[in-house]
Design goal:
Length: about 290
């Protein structure tokens, strides 16, 4: 399989995995707090990656560890908690939609801070995708007046963190394999996540059985939606561009929408149109 086919394959697989992550967060929040969901997500991913990628840590040079640590906090630690907190007030499908702001932030930060090259069509594609995102969000806000949409600010901050992360990886860690980057990230984050989790109390939640079910969903989220997905994502960054890699966030809402339907989260006709516009943005931003 050539590089062009491979990158589209990674994009599709990641959209399926991450599109399912938001419903897993929602299930985790049934028996856990947002902080517990974020902590368990990191811990499970770290344990899994330690098993499969421990030997890859020796490939990280002393100079690279600094950037591995920085990318771990921007790309995983902060967003893991922000998304969980946001879903305590906003539907999982809407949070997934807001995640589509990532390519816009990636392109803007890439141009302003990292000096990446770009094409006019890429800029057009990002803005077309953003318009689709806004259609989805505004329609969702009007149809769910009881939800606190100030929490979407947390999602916006998370997308900025993702944008910084993807540009840092492309600029400073492109010569390091994706397993080493991912394993290094979570080795840095394991202790902070354990410390934060130790400050919480699971026993005060609904009941132990419910908490156990929630932990199971978060375990799936940590291993598949965080550990394995990050390995694939970092590989995608290395074989494509930061903007193309973050285009996965255009497809994530489509997957999250179908999960939302199964969980009685309905979208309006305007939101359906927004989904089409988002796909158009993917095409424009990725086309050479």
């Amino acid at each position: 399989m050539d590089a062009k086919q491979l990158k589209w394959g990674y994009l599709l697989v990641l959209s399926l995995i991450w599109g399912s992550s938001f419903i897993l967060i929602k299930r985790g929040l049934v028996g856990l707090t947002a902080v517990q969901v974020g902590s368990f997500r990191i811990i499970f991913a770290a344990l899994f990656l330690f098993i499969i990628g421990f030997k890859s840590l020796k490939k990280i040079s002393r100079r690279q560890w600094k950037f591995v640590a920085i990318t771990s906090f921007f790309g995983t630690f902060t967003p893991a908690y922000l998304f969980a907190i946001a879903e305590t007030e906003v539907d999982s499908s809407i949070v997934a939609i807001l995640n589509s702001l990532t390519p816009l932030n990636t392109l803007v930060l890439g141009i302003v801070i990292f000096g990446i090259q770009f094409q006019k069509r890429q800029v057009l594609g990002v803005f077309v995708g953003l318009i689709g995102c806004l259609l989805l969000v505004l329609s969702g806000a009007s149809s769910h007046p009881g939800q606190n949409y100030y929490y979407v600010i947390l999602v916006v901050i998370a997308t900025i963190c993702y944008a910084i992360n993807v540009n840092l990886i492309k600029k400073y860690l492109s010569d390091l394999n994706s397993v080493s980057i991912t394993t290094g990230n979570f080795m840095v984050l394991l202790l902070p996540a354990l410390i934060i989790l130790s400050t919480t109390d699971i026993s005060h939640r609904i009941d132990i059985e419910t908490a156990q079910h929630s932990i199971f969903f978060v375990m799936i989220l940590g291993v598949l939606g965080t550990g394995i997905a990050n390995v694939l994502f970092f590989k995608l960054i290395q074989i494509s561009s930061p903007v193309f890699a973050t285009s996965v966030t255009y497809l994530i809402p489509i997957v999250a929408f179908f999960w939302g339907l199964l969980d009685n989260e309905m979208l309006t006709p305007v939101q359906f149109f927004g989904a089409f516009v988002i796909l158009l943005g993917v095409y424009l931003s990725a086309k050479k």
